[in-house]
Amino acid sequence: MKKTLVAVLALAVLASNFVMAAKKQKAGKVLNIYCWNEEFQSRFNDYYASKLPSDIKVNWIITPSQGNAYQNKLDEALAAQKKAKADNKIDIFLVEADYALKYVDAPGVCLDVKKDIGLTDADLAQQYKYTKDIMTDHKGVLRGVSWQACPGGFIYRRSIAKDVLGTDDPTEVGKALSNWDKFDDVAAKAKAKGYFMLSGIDDAFRVFSDNVKTPWVDKNSKIQIDPQIRRWVKQTKEYTDKGYNNKANLWSPESFQGATKNGKVFGYFGHAWFLDFCLAPATLDNPNGAKAVGNGSYGDWAFCKGPQGFSWGGTWICGAAGSDNVDLIKDIMKTLTCDATTMVKIAKEAGDFTNNERAMTQVANSSYQNPFLGGQNHMAFFLDSAKSIDKSNMSPYDQGMTETLQHAMSDYFNGIVSESTAWDNFYTSVIELYPNLQR
What we know:
Helix content is 46%, strand content 10%. Helix 19 packs antiparallel against helix 20. It starts with a helix and ends in a 6-residue tail after the last helix. With 439 residues, the chain is of the alpha/beta class. Strands 2-1-3-9 form a four-stranded mixed beta sheet. Strands 7-4-8 form a three-stranded antiparallel beta sheet. Strands 5-6 form a two-stranded parallel ribbon. The longest helix has 25 residues.
């Protein structure tokens, strides 16, 4: 009996060693990463690339999001994944919150972060709960991880705040903007001084949409409009008619023009990634010059919570089923999304609010200063918000609903159609997009 047991154990060890050896032999030499911009590429290059084995080539397939081009490109590659040659298979792909469920709940697309890739509960313990909820499928399986958490706030121009409110101190400005009634009062004061409270008609949308209590679609496939969405429509129409915004569209050159040295926009709703990756570069007179006070409006900014806590966006790393680089994917995920030392560095050097509660508490209580924000340590404003983010109302319809609504309402805000016509146009477009839904 003992001899039999020893033989069985020996065979098990031999089989295990064979599998491990085969796995090592099979490891690919090309790491294919699909994404829509250079944000993750910069984090990868700055905080992971030095760990790459010398014989590994990283192939970046970057397709902009406009017109759904990124998802279309990704979907095409995923459909061909099983038949693709080893060096052409997707290894890592990135997703955003608005459409994460499309991939998370699709069978055979994303690897199981724990079972397939090998991260443990201990590895993931410090990540904010909502960042894991977004990437958990309907069976409770975690399918992706992020290096960032995305609580938001109001990023305002210090010099304009001084002119309008008599102070640029984040605590005092925060008090003046602590609810929507106060925010509206300051908007009126800003207008009287020749400023725009917001840049455009969709600037505040994510603040309201992230505070909804009901999902876009009920269990009977009927479209639901939460009171927060209706409040956004009402406020934005008033701001547009009263000249409290500049009628610009988010992401447009006109929107960011309001943040330049001679710009007249009081502030922008955003997050750490928006602040560092989008707004700060737009404030520079000389984009190739130093990121320092004196170059445009750089440094003339600060951060406060604003009228409502909210979150927006974020980028998640998914391991693609069929990848021949699973061990490498594990190391990338562990380094960039679990290692507290790395996440402190990303926060201090790149400005991200990273997805590690212990690391962010450390940064918030440190002497860290953000030069774009005039030396402010804004991380403390994020701590409580990050823990309270709730994404339980997310649905697969979120991206289509939000994009269609904003497009339909822009005609109403600009006086082209009535509000009732705008709503009719919204419902018509959404039901064309999702024929299974009803008004």
